[in-house]
Structure formats: C-alpha cells, structure tokens
Design a protein that fits this description.
This protein is mainly beta. Helix content is 0%, strand content 52%.
Length: 71
C-alpha cells in the first residue's frame, strides 16, 4: 500500500494495484465522481496495475508496474 497527499486531495494504491482518491475533484480530474468534493475513498476505474502515486496541488500521477505514467 502507498499513499500520497497534497493540500487538496489524497490518493492511495492498494496491494492489488488499484487507486483510490478523495478530496477536491474540480472538473473531475481525480475520477468520474459527480461531486467536486469526494468525502470517501473512491476507486479510479481507469487505473490498474499501479505501483505508485504522487499528488500535487492540481494533479495526480500514477506509475504502473510496467513503467507507464498516467495523469
């Protein structure tokens, strides 16, 4: 498990490589949740096989086990 936070949101990677996010979600940049504020960890359906995440004020980057980076 790996966790990263910024002043606006948090992202976590599970042992199975899934990513969950919560916090501010303007323009649905974190996930497809309808709300602009996600209060509970919500799975990012488009990400899988992730080994690491990092959060900045207005971005999240995810690194997959094969070396691909997603934002």
């Amino acid at each position: 498990i790996q966790l990263s936070s910024s002043v606006t949101h948090t992202a976590a990677v599970t042992l199975s490589g899934s990513v969950f996010v919560w916090g501010q979600n303007p323009g649905r940049i974190l996930c497809d949740a309808a709300s602009e504020h996600i209060e509970t960890p919500t799975k990012v359906a488009r990400l899988s096989n992730i080994c690491q995440v990092t959060c900045g004020r207005h971005f999240t980057l995810a690194l997959s086990i094969d070396g691909a980076v997603s934002s």
